[in-house]
Structure prediction request, 408 residues.
Amino acid sequence: MKNILKSRVGRVLFIILFCVSFFRHHCTAAGDTNADVYKKMSIEELAVKAYELEQVSSPEAREYVDVFFQLAEKYLKANRKDAAMETLNKGLRLKSWDYRHQIMLAELELEKKQYQSARDRINFVKNSCDDETLRSKAEQLFFKTELKNIESKTKPRPELLDHKLYIVRFDGVDPAIVKAIASKIGQEFNIKVQVIDRVLKPDKTEIKHNRAKILGEMTRGIKDKMVPAEYKKMLKEAGLAGLEANTDVEKEKLLKWVILKYKDGRNYWSEVEKSMEDQYNSNVLIEQLERQCSKELRGNKVLGVLGVMVYDIYADGINFVFGRAGEGSGVMSYSRFFDDFTPNHVTMKRAVVQSLSSTGMILGLERCTTPTCARAYPHSLEEHDRKEDKLCNSCIEVLRVNYETRKN
Ligand SMILES: [Zn+2]
Prediction:
């Protein structure tokens, strides 16, 4: 009996996984991501594609990141090293955990005597890459160039302490998280941070109600793939007395029962729950921030405002985002950073990392290519967790330039 149940549950879970992955990915760009296709293209053709990619958002562009990497390799073959470096940077901004291209960029940086940045990349590959060949390549570079002898730059951290960033809470946000975010942004960016003493009600225009839709699709997926007798039996085992899953409550009971039978069921169920939450349009929230904090934003030497949400947010064409920001204003959400079992310090760290990334966008900085930097682009929560809650050396140098411009 147990085995029958197991295989049935296995089949059902497969369907559910399919449904959820459909829900989570059907909005992202589809198409050919095969590097071999790009290999056959000319520099000119790839350059056009790369230009097009620069016009779309990061999650969409990430699907086609090989365009940048293939173009960079072709530039390198043609001995156009500056173009290769620029293009590698563009690719790594989207996919910083690409060890092979990190090494490629590090070698070019060494030629240009950009030791600091090269050292960060080489150390990253040396310490975290599983591929033996790439790791030993990183070790060779490390010793060959005596990177270990290069001291960290002794220049003081750039500061812009007469400039201010505002932070504002939306409904339901934990004040302790906002406090942690505010202090870390102040420390890492060396700017003044002030938490606005009001709580905003998130604008519900263009809110997405996903619950009924997801429950309906997923339970239908199960029912359609099962023999009726099996399905009835399953409902009985799941404790559905009426032997039907018609209401949302019944559908949820059935799904939860099926998913929790699985080894990694708890994590998976929490993902499903997050997908079912109401989602707010990030662009609408940014407009709301600009409207409702206009008095603060009009002040002298104001860098912008960051809104913090606990509810899930999305962007046009993207199922969900951790944060969304442009120069001067942005919104972030820590909705996907916790479930009932996440220790508080983990949620806190994840939120802090995101806030540093959002602040960089508010200041108008380009994405960072150092994978462990808080400002690197994460493709998943797992990649987000690999980032540190601080800015890397290259970000600090970028800040130096940005602050000089603002001072003048
Ligand atoms: Zn960085």
Summary: Residues 368, 370, 373, 375, 391-392, 394-395 surround zinc ion (CB under 6 Å).
